[in-house]
Structure to design on (261 residues):
């Protein structure tokens, strides 16, 4: 699996017409994808089939924003990761803070969902992040460690493709991103924590940053050494912003790979 990714989380936005326009504008802005960086777009569930058609032949991949922790059964209103796989998804966002806040999802559920996603052949994008209160109380590492350990208690490191996303809850949708220094420190913490389980896996693990990334701050955030890409919300709904972030990531990745890092 490639290490550097740009993921657009479209959240509960869009409609058939707007999605096609946004996708076409992104596509014409990026042209052929650079070999160094891959892109995943995550529309709302009803538009996955539309997106499957749009991305065909472009190299852009699609992901879902959530999935059940079960593969099948009497779970009204839920969506199996097997169904997502059949619709062309390669990825699924798991444990997003908005689901923790509004749907009451917890660490254990995140682990079970990640396991079901892997069983279905999807790559889970595991979101972890602290609240402002937790950071202010000096509990960031306790919280991040607990969230990671809960997920990795269910999944193996050695064989599975997994992406981790650091999304501090206070930086999501606020317009105020974490500083590059904070992002680097927390990514290094997450990598080291996983390294306690499996050092080789930790080295090749993709860790994305998400939280108010935009064109103007992308280069400084994404060039931090333990940052392997971005998980973008609001700016993913604006083609020129998203394309600029993609280009910034391609540039920092090329520089990093040229240095052999
Ligand atoms: P914003 O980029 O709007 O802060 O959202 C980030 C996010 O939640 C991505 O999953």
């Amino acid at each position: 699996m490639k290490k550097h990714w740009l993921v657009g989380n479209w959240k509960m936005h869009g409609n058939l017409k707007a999605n096609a326009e946004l996708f076409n504008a992104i596509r014409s802005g990026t042209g052929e994808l650079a070999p160094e960086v891959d892109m995943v777009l995550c529309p709302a569930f009803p538009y996955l089939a539309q997106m499957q058609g749009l991305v065909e032949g472009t190299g852009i991949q699609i992901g879902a924003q959530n999935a059940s922790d079960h593969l099948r059964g009497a779970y009204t209103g839920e969506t199996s990761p097997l169904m997502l796989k059949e619709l062309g998804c390669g990825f699924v966002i798991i444990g997003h803070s908005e689901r923790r806040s509004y749907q009451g999802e917890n660490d254990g559920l995140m682990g079970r969902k990640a396991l079901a996603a892997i069983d279905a052949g999807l790559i889970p994008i595991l979101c972890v992040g602290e609240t402002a209160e937790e950071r202010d109380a000096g509990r960031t590492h306790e919280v991040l460690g607990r969230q990671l350990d809960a997920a990795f208690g269910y999944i193996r490191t050695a064989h599975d493709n997994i992406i981790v996303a650091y999304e501090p809850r206070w930086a999501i949708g606020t317009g105020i991103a974490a500083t590059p220094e904070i992002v680097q420190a927390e990514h290094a913490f997450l990598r080291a924590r996983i390294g306690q389980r499996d050092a080789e896996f930790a080295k090749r693990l993709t860790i994305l940053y998400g939280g108010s990334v935009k064109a103007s701050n992308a280069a400084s955030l994404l060039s931090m050494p333990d940052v392997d890409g971005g998980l973008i919300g609001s700016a993913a709904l604006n083609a020129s912003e998203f394309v600029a972030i993609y280009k910034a990531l391609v540039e920092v990745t090329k520089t990093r790979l040229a240095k052999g890092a």
Observations:
- The CA atoms of residues 36 and 250 lie 7 Å apart.
- The mean pLDDT is 95.
- The domain at 4-259 is CATH 3.20.20.70 (TIM Barrel).
- The chain has one domain: 4-259.
